[in-house]
Amino acid sequence: MSLKQVGILTGGGDCSGLNAVIRAVTRAAVIQHKARVIGIEKGFEGLISGKTQELTVRSTKDILTLGGTVLGTTNKGNPFEYRTRDAAGAIQVHDYSDRAVETFKNLGLDCLFVVGGEGTLEIGYLFYKKGIPVVGIPKTIDNDLEKTDYTFGYQTAVQVACDAMDRLHTTGRSHHRVMILEVMGRNAGWIALEAGIAGGAHIILIPEIEYRIENVIKKIQLRKEGGSPFSIIIVAEGAREKGKETVKAQAAEDRLQGVEKLGGIGFYLAKQIEKQIDLEVRTTVLGHIQRGGSPNSFDRVLGTRLGSFAVDAAADGKFGTMVSLRTPDVSLVRLKDLAGKVRTVSMDSQLIRCAESIGINLGREAM
Ligand code: F6P
Prior knowledge:
By secondary structure, this protein is of the alpha/beta class. The protein is built from 10 helices and 15 strands. It has helices spanning 18-33, 45-49, 97-107, 118-129, 154-175, 190-198, 213-225, 265-276, 297-315, 350-357; strands spanning 5-10, 36-40, 52-55, 82-85, 91-94, 111-116, 134-138, 177-183, 203-205, 231-236, 248-250, 261-262, 280-285, 321-326, 329-334. Helix 1 (18-33) runs parallel beside helix 9 and helix 5 (154-175) packs across helix 6 (190-198). The model has no long low-confidence stretch (mean pLDDT 96). The chain binds 6-O-phosphono-beta-D-fructofuranose. 6-O-phosphono-beta-D-fructofuranose binds next to loops.
């Protein structure tokens, strides 16, 4: 079918490459279909408030290299469970999903492109079940989505973390220190694992393998005895010590998002190491630097491919789907098959085998 008017929104935490997708969707919709493209602002919140902006080839012409999202985003605006605080500070939950469907209808859209991670795509699926023709586009630095080889934003985040590792190497070596880099990823260890391998880490700690501190100390000690009195550790924010809780910066019940804020494991680990070994330890928390800034070439190409394929999928009437990289092709998977699922590093991943086979310690007994 020929598309006349399409909508696009970006939801959840931002990442590099969102604007590449917005540009690709806009250009493909205009060039292939002469369609109008309506950008919905601030994720699903724009569907509640009706705040939109028209996107054109001209208005998107310089955004390919730009970080963030020109449409804005939020990880608080789930219309099915919209959370606010009352005067006493208590959290109230509202269902604004009918209002969002109403806005979609009033806008006269043929379809809605939902660009997001697991949470946003799950909301997209709920709207699909409520009758909105949705095509999902997978984004997140965490790379934790099922049924796609990579999400866009991930490779850029890995590159940023790898650059940080390179810098920690030179200063750590000069001062004979243990340098810890804490990276994001929520409950998936992809960023830590790949940036750790790329950045020559001596120890990589990921959520999928609970670490034992004695194994970490042993590796640092062995390096010291072998004439390398410095070590570089990369730790995922979701990593945890065997038998202990994940270190949290804020509990879920205290947050409007309704999910816990991770962070702090780098400092926790530093204290543990300092107690047991006579080396100085320093912690760097990379934080949102992994999310901001210009996408690398991989994410620009991936974002552009996903955006253009999503327009083709909509024109073919393939709704309730997500565009997905299945190297070397982009194909379609059903949103239904993703809902509520998170892809973590599996224990039989070749990356784990690769890391351990070259002597990187993963916090467990060397295999
Ligand atoms: O999901 C992306 C992500 O960057 C996670 O890696 C991290 O835990 C979280 O978002 C941080 O969210 P916020 O921007 O709300 O601090």
